[in-house]
């Protein structure tokens, strides 16, 4: 197994098993542990400097989240990205994003509008780097500004949790450079509709924004088969 490029961050407030779980979870979501890759307890334990017990416990929790599959006679491996898992996550994201932009149209401040414009420009400039991790972080930052503008802590929390689950799909989408200009255009239209308070149009644009991601990733999944 190729060693993933991740580091364990020891948090004194978390039990070791939770630290290991969070570390492996992030490695899967960010693509450092790739779909179909076997999770070898001994190698992972050595890599993270822990015993096999917290590794085993973490793998069980990851299986419950659908990020890991247990294969008879083979053991654990990172779950493949499937059309079903993609649709399940992004259908929920679509509904929450629509709610977020509608609330943002009512509540966003001039300061947040400026932050949103700066986030869009940062995303545009980051595309030139070709660094998928940085591009994904810039895309997350753009949407986070909208979420914060809603001033709804429960919605912000739900979207934050969902964001972790959809990170791997976001990365797959952003690998498609043929969609980059479309993303830039969609970000600009989202800003314009929120700034002018056009709720229905903002909702339509953001839903199309998510739908385009679904179709692009599904196309990628089918191409790989």
Task: Give an overview of the whole structure.
The chain has 225 residues and is mainly alpha-helical. 71% of the residues lie in helices and 4% in strands. The protein has nine helices and two strands. The protein has helices at residues 16-29, 41-48, 52-64, 83-107, 110-127, 132-149, 153-174, 180-195, 199-224; strands at residues 68-71, 75-78. A two-stranded antiparallel sheet has the order 1-2. A hairpin with a 3-residue loop joins β1 (68-71) and β2. The chain is elongated.
Question: First CA to last CA: what distance?
Answer: 22 Å
Count of helical segments? 9
Given the C-alpha coordinates, what overall shape results? elongated
Work out the radius of gyration: 19 Å
The level of helicity is over 70%
Main beta-sheet annotation: 2 strands, antiparallel
Number of strands: 2
Order of helices and strands: HHHEEHHHHHH
Low-confidence residue ranges:
none
Strand arrangement across the biggest beta sheet: 1-2
Mean of pLDDT:
90
Question: What portion of residues belong to β-strands?
Answer: under 5%
Q: What structural class do helix, strand and pairing data support?
A: mainly alpha
Give the key terms.
single chain, 225 residues, 9 helices, two-stranded antiparallel ribbon, mainly alpha, elongated
At a glance:
With 225 residues, this protein is mainly alpha-helical. It has helices spanning 16-29, 41-48, 52-64, 83-107, 110-127, 132-149, 153-174, 180-195, 199-224, and strands at residues 68-71, 75-78.
Task: Produce the secondary structure layout.
Elements lengths: L15 H14 L11 H8 L3 H13 L3 E4 L3 E4 L4 H25 L2 H18 L4 H18 L3 H22 L5 H16 L3 H26 L1
Antiparallel strand pairs: 1-2
